[in-house]
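Case study 2.
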Amino acid sequence: MEDLCGEQQIDPLRTSVPQLAQFLEQKRGGGLAPSTIEGYRTVIAGTIRQVTGVDLSCDSAISSLLRSYRIDSAKSRNDIPTWDLSLVLNMLSKSPFEPIKSIGMKELTFKPCFLLRLLLANAGVSYML
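Prediction:
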């Protein structure tokens, strides 16, 4: 915050809401997590409140900005792990799933059900098998 204030020749302890928002935007652009940016807001607002009596931590514009960061972060988060289909199919072609003549009933049942589930998922169908 001090760097931004120095560039714009602003007293850091007299920071306005738009200036604080600009600083938080810079931090978000740097790839920081929403919780980290909220920590910056808390520290800066607490310092300013102690010195000037102005409480920026309750400002609705700043709260909305931080809420938008959390929403954007939730949208971009991928809860589904990535996996390699070729690796999975390769594993299904080895023991304990191959050779078919020597596998147990559990593996014999699992393999076609799993392959069918892959096929249905690729088609966008979500049946419980």
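DSSP finds six helices and no strands in the chain.
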